[in-house]
Amino acid sequence: MKAASREALANAESSLDQVLAEAGAVAIAAETGMDLFEIADVLDSDRELRVAVSDSAAPESARKSLVSQLIGEKVNPTTLKVVEDAVASNWSSGRDLVNGLVALGRRALLRGAESQGQLGQVEDELFRLSRILDREGELTQLLSDRTATSARKRGLLANVLYGKVTMFTEALALQVIGRPEHNPIDDTAALASKAAELQGRTVAHVVSAGELNEGQQAVLAEKLGKIYGRAMSIHSEVDTSLLGGMTIRVGDEVIDGSTAGKIARLRTAMK
Q1: What pLDDT is attached to residue 253?
Q2: Is the pLDDT of residue 115 over 80?
Q3: Closest Cα to residue 36, out of 102, 127, 131?
Q4: pLDDT tens track for 230-254
Q5: Distance in angstroms (rounded) separating the CA atoms of residues 89 and 16
Q6: CA dist., res. 1 & res. 98, Å (int)
Q7: What membrane topology does the annotation report for this chain (predicted)?
Q8: DSSP code of 238?
């Protein structure tokens, strides 16, 4: 997104948080999220309408009025307020507005999970799903198939998730599979990171030679928090090829404390 769209999205996110806090109901947050996805799909398929509601040359009141006429009787007041506030901002393009509504829909579901006391669980479930997709190459290939319909891919993933995750995780995962940005693995992991961000935490991707228990993860999170000066969320997985120790990635920075890494560095030094 260009600067104008980034600013518009930031304003829309603040508006969304405010109206959801005022609504104070988990069901409203979930319904709003799903409504925003549907509205984004409609705008995605109708270029003329997309241009009309994102035309910064048109008066703000006209754009809001158009939205009210189109969806006012079809969605809850919270959704209507969020969309009206979104179109009132100046977006760089209609496509950015659509992407912004998708981001708002995801945020609404995450806020719903937060209200339900499940945001940490959703974060963990999304990360675990990204790791399953990383291991299950055949499943990920099917979900990445550009020739398959979104409905078919969502149906496939729904069968995998049914009864195993919260309703928020399932809704988010199905949506991101139906509207890919990069690939299923990275898109799902990005959602997990967004969940951590809403909790005021930065993600540390940890790969260890053995499973880390909850106590070990808590100690590691505390140590990394002191190093980076902010609360950390540990996303861990096991790779026995490391032989011992672990690697830690925070953003673009990688700390390699694995046995395999030490051996590789020793070999390089001896050449």
Answers
A1: 92
A2: yes
A3: 102
A4: 999 999 999 999 989 999 999 989 9
A5: 14
A6: 11
A7: Peripheral membrane protein
A8: E
Domain-ending residue, one of 80, 115, 150: 115
Pair type for strands 246-250 and 253-256: antiparallel
Burial letters for 9-42: b for 16+ Cβ neighbours within 10 Å, e otherwise? bebbbebbeebbeebeebebbbbbbbbbbebbbe
CA distance 49 to 43: 6
CA 116 – CA 201 distance, rounded (Å)? 19
How much is the average pLDDT of 95-104? Answer: 95
Query: Which among 115, 143, 176 is the end of a domain?
Result: 115
Task: Determine which helix (DSSP H) or strand (DSSP E) holds 196, and give its type and residue range.
Answer: helix 184-198
Q: Domain residues for 217?
A: 200-270
CATH number at residue 243: 3.40.30
